[in-house]
Every structure is written in C-alpha cells, then in structure tokens.
Amino acid sequence: MTALRRRLLHDGWTVSVGDGPHELDERTRIPATVPGCVHTDLLAAGLIDDPFADDNESAQRWIGQTDWNYRTRFDAEPGGADRHDLVFDGLDTVADVRLNGTLVLSARNQHRSHRVDVTDLLRHGGNDLDIRFTSPVRWANAQSAVLGARPRPYPLPYEAIRKSASSFGWDWGIHTATSGIWRPVALESWSTARIDRILLDARPEDAGRGILRADIRIKRADPEAELRVSVDLLGEHRQAVIPAGGDHVLIELPLEDVQRWWPVGYGEQALYEVDVELLHDSAVVDSRRRRVGFRTVRWDTSPDAHGTGFTLHINDRPVLVKGVNWIPDDALVTRVTGDQYRRRLAQARDAHVNLVRVWGGGIYESEEFYDICDEMGVLTWQDFLFACAAYPEEEPLRSEVEAESREHIVRLSGHASLVLLCGNNENLMGHDDWGWQRSLDGATWGAGYYFELLPRLVADLAPGTPYIPGSPFHPGGGRANDERHGPVHLWEQWNTDDWRTYRRHAPRFVAEFGWQGPPAWSTLADAVHDAPLTPESPGMLVHQKAAEGNAKLRDGLLAHLPVPREMADWHWAMQWNQAAAIRFALGHFRSTGITSGTIVWQLNDCWPVTSWSAVDSAGRRKPLWHALRQAYSPREIVVDEDARTVTLLNDTDQAWTGPVRLRRLAFDGTELARSEHQARVRPRSIETFTIDDDVAEPVHPGSELIVVDLDHQRGFGWFTEPRASSLEPAAIESTVAATPEGATVTVVARNLVRDLSLLVDRAHPDATVDRALVTLLPGESAQFAITAVSDPAALQDPLVMRSLNDLVRNTTA
Predict the structure, then answer these.
(1) pLDDT tens across 679-734, in order?
(2) Distance, CA of 499 to chain centre
(3) Which one of 63, 374, 562, 788 is most buried, by most CB atoms within 10 A?
(4) Fold for domain 5-188?
(5) How far is Cα 252 from Cα 245, in angstroms, rounded to an integer?
(6) Which residues constitute the signal peptide according to the record (predicted)?
C-alpha cells in the first residue's frame, strides 16, 4: 500500500499567443513559468517593457484582450496507484484543459481549485498537457451581455466573471486582466482513499483544558475498504473507523493542558500541530498536518444607548481593533512570495496593527499569508470576493460562487487569526444609496449570496466563525453605513470635506477611511520618467487612478497649507497631509470611547501609484506608516483643541497613572502657563479631562501651542492651522555617525521644529528610518536610526531632512 503521491508539474511549460489584437508570431513558443501569468512570461522574454512604468499600462491592454495557449509535456508511469488526478490549485481564469488531446476540464473561476480524474487518459512515457485561456476581457463582456448589465463604478464588467475585480483596474490599481496558471498544478496518484476535507475547531475550556473537533471527509477509490482515521495533538491520540461505503468521521480530542491563542498586544500566540492520518490495513494512505490555536471569538452587536455596537471579543475579552485594509501586494499576484508576505505583515504589526482586512475585490491569499497572521497574532477579517458592484445570481455564476465559497470557508476557518467572514465590500450600501435599484429594474444583485447562500455555508462548514453580510452593515437590519450601528465606511472627508471634519463623527466601528499621498520618491522616480516631473505631468496622471485625485489632494491640503510649486515640496506636502489626516482621525476615533475599532484604508499597494497606502509597492514606508505607529501606540495622548480636552489612551493590561504636565508655550519655548493633572487610566480604557482655562486660551494663537507630557508620551495642541501660524524655517543642527547597520542621525532643534522626518530613500533607495513626524521644542534633540545607507552625509541633504516648517514657508506666493 502506497501513500498519496503529489508530483508538481511546473517544468517545461511554454506559452503562445492565440486570438486577439496582438502582433506576435503565433508559432513562437515563449518559455513560461508556472505558477505565473502571461505578463511575467512576456516580461521575462523581453517582449514587453515593465507594465508599471510610465504609460505601459495602455500599451499592454491588448494582453487581456487576447487568448493564450500554455503547453507542457511530462512523463508518467500510470501503474502503482488506483487513481491519478490532475490538480489545479488556481487557473486564471477562463481555461480549457486538454490531456493528450482530450478535453478534461473547462474552468471558469480564478478563485477555486479543480481536480480531474485522468487515470484512463494517462500514458506511459510522454503526456501532452495543453491549456487554452480565453481573453478575460472579451469573456466578461460576453457574459455581461448574457446575464444583463449590472451597475458598478468602473467600466469593465468584472461582476460577470469570477476573477479578481481589481485586475481590471481600480481607483488605486493598474489594469492588467492577467491570464495564466497562477497557482500550483500537480499530478496526484493514490489508492484506496484520500483525505478530501478537514475542518478543525479548537476550543478552549476552563482550567486550561481544551477540545479539538476534527471533521474529516474522504474520497474513495475502493468503496468496500474499511478505513481508520487517526488524529494526534500534544501526545493525545484518537482513532475512528470509517466503514465500507462511508466517507465521513467526526473525532473529538479532549486536552488537559493547552495555552490560549491571543492577538498581538494581548498575549502569546500559542499554536499546536495536528496530525491527521488515513489508514487502510495499518498502512497510511494519506496524511495532513495543520496548526491550530485555541481561542474563542465573537462580535458583540448588542443595542445600547449609542446605537448598535460592533465589538470584537477574543477569549471573552474585548479587543480594540487597530486595523488596516489589505489589497493584493502586487498587481501581478504570482510574484508575491512568502518572504514578501512576512515583510509586509511585519510592517503592519510593527505599526501596532492587530487586524488586517482582506478586501473583497482582490484574491483569497495563499496559505502562507494566513499562517503568518497566526504566528504574528495579526487578526484577519476576510471578505468574500464581491466588491462595489451588483453581482448576478444566475447560473453559471451561482454554482461557481458556491464552489469557491465552500473551498475557502473550509481552508480558512481553522486559522486562529480568522475572526470574521464578510459577505461583500460596499454592495449593500451600493444597493441602498448609489441608485442601483432603478437601473437593476428587478434583476438580481447579490442579496441571495449575502443573506442566504453564504451564511448557510458558514453555518454548515464553520459554525464557530462569525459572519456578516457586508461592510458597511447595520446589525439591526437598517440601512448600511449608519455610524450609530455597526461598521461604516467614511469617505466624505477625502471626497468632499476637510479631514478636520472627522471630529463630527463618533462611529461604532470604521472599516474603511483614508487619505491619499504619493509613494516614496525613489518608488515614484523608478516608475515615472516625465521630464519635467510635475503633479500633472502625463506619467503622474497615469499613476493617479482616483477620480479627480489630484484636485482632491490639492483641495484637501489648502485648509492646512499652501500648495507648493516645486515638485519635491509638493511630494512632501502631500505625504505630510496624508499622515496628518489619518493621525488626526485615529486620535479622534480612539478618544470617543464608543468606537470599538478602526481599519485604515490601506496598508499596501500593488504597483507604484499615488494612493491611500502606508507602505508603497516597493515596500517603502511612507510618513503615513509612522503616523499609524504613533496613533495606534498602546499609550497615546490626544489633545482636542476645540473641545479643550485631553484624552489619555491606554490599550495595555496595566493602569497608567502619574502626573500629567500641561504647558502653553510660545513657539520660542517660553512657558506662558502650566497646570497638572493626576492620571488614573484603568487598563484597556481611556480618560478624558478638561484643560484649565489659563493653559487652553492663547494670547497669540498663531505662535503658541499646548504640550502635554505623561511618562515618555507627549501630545501637542495647536491653535491654528499651519498655514496661519508663525512657524519659522527649521533651525537645526545635525550630526551623522556611521553604525554597522547604516548611520545614526542626531538632530538638535534651535527653534520649534514640527513633524521632522527623514525621507531616507532619497539618500539610498534601500534605506529605512526608525521614526518620523517628530516634533521638537527649542533646545530638544532626537536620534534617528538609519539602515542601508552608503553615504551617511547624504542624510543631511535638505531634500532628505524635511519638516512641516519647510511647507509653511515654501508657499506659492
């Protein structure tokens, strides 16, 4: 008896062009990488330029309008096993698969896997495997004509095809419309039976005990064989018999001593390996290894005096959600590696983020992504893949939706980090508030998915996993995006209002809000080669996808600063304004006392673009990342000048006590008034108190500020916008000392220096800095640790060492 054998079929692939608007020789076979996509193959062959540079996006739109043919030949020895299956973990997207000339699969869904029995078709020796991919653009257009047009904010009918919506372009995303074998393909050979599905539910109990429930289904080649399933965890072992003809077993494994799994900031991430074996006559015919964490999860949506809450509880403890939204980390998603996931998620965790929302217009990420989240204690909120459109519920889409949903509920529900499955992104709000109902004229739009199919599947396959029908969502059944009830999305600030108007809102939970800013200078310069480079130069506009994006950047800055004329100053001003907007919003939301979580749009980028991201597509941290790290700090001081209050935020398990020193200072450092408050902030809570009148009321608002100190935390209050202040050009002295890692820069301020930041990628493209947005009073100093810089003196360049002072005096006058 031999165990299941999995042989990857990743070698020897070529790709050639089919029907479509191309100028390639159809006889030419281009070497293809699997997993991969046609864009990366064409790029490797030197047949296209970098899709992300300049306006190559437009020049390469033909790729998504063209059919592509993939081919390989592999040797096989069909004997020695009862069954041989071709297993495709992911085909993107409309693919007809032929083995030795016979059609064995017609795939129509990027988001699911496929398994095909090819036992009778497999030949000794050479076997020809051919896959024809139909143009996703032409297919989606044809399906839209059949199913009926549906409302959406973008031109191409991504709702008519089960493919990553953002691959057709988004307000931060490039149009690629890829095709290819985007996840592994293998030949699996097995006898008697194999494991088909494992559902694991690890629940903690009192006194350190726990219980593991393993729900296991099998597929048979021999219907008469009696089988056994074995489950092992922490030395505990249970077996169960599957009689002839059976295909399912439920095993419960009680445990006496397990540690609970906690999100980052609340405890350790205890994970345990579970071994599952399928046996026949004492021989192992298939096996799997999984990891689990013992924890409970629920979302409290109880009505209260403020409306309807939306509070996450892990192990019966409320958790303040400090989140970021996640999009695919590369528009060519097959290039994303496990190391890249680890770097990006570490950047989230290092900014004190404890939850990542995987947005519904991208992809279900690879197993590595969720494994890393489990290890790091970064919670995951997973959207089902429906975003910003009315989705048809007719066949053949409905069956595809059910198949993909079943697969990913099973795959993801065992991860300790998964705390929420969400039906869609903004489709409930779209139906209610975007005028869809009239244009739909009675057509389906996805309600059957969100309110019937998906909750039924979750209840059946993963009953311990919370589900909501969409984001935003009203838990009481009212209209979505009511800030008194459940999660909301706040976009009026970016679209029409100033970011100071965040203070008008006291939402129960914010699942999306954000502000745009350009990528790091090096990232921008590598992708856009305009001469001269200006905010409105052609390449810059290609890399700005938001409707009226540059106008919104300008209008959103004007209340705070003049718009600079020089490109370098414009770049810094927009990066500063992005950071200032989100820092202000997060401070306000955390101070309300009723906002139980925030999820900033967005952590990452998929290509070099002006966007809402904190980390750009090259992995460079923008000033926004440092603002997140400050605003999500476990302890933070927020000064609300208008309300003349101070709020102390304590997201730790220890009380925060001590004398709070409040001072009103002139910009030259002269103390004008002071007071003191004794802080007694309980664990995981906030305290708000009113500032004494003599500190709160300035004589010269444009040249005074409030400074609040407690322990090593500091908060600032400003009486006017920067543009109306008397902030002078920064007078600083800096020294640079080389270190084994790079350099340390020490800065001494001779006058008030506000939001000092070192844009270190200008000194070296690989350089990083440990802090930014540092405000120094006259006479104070700060150190910055820099890595990967070859010329330390370059760190003192005025284009590297920036502050808000530069922007107040760098005006358009």
Answers:
(1) 999 999 999 999 999 999 999 999 999 999 999 999 999 999 999 999 999 999 99
(2) 23
(3) 63
(4) Jelly Rolls (2.60.120)
(5) 22
(6) none
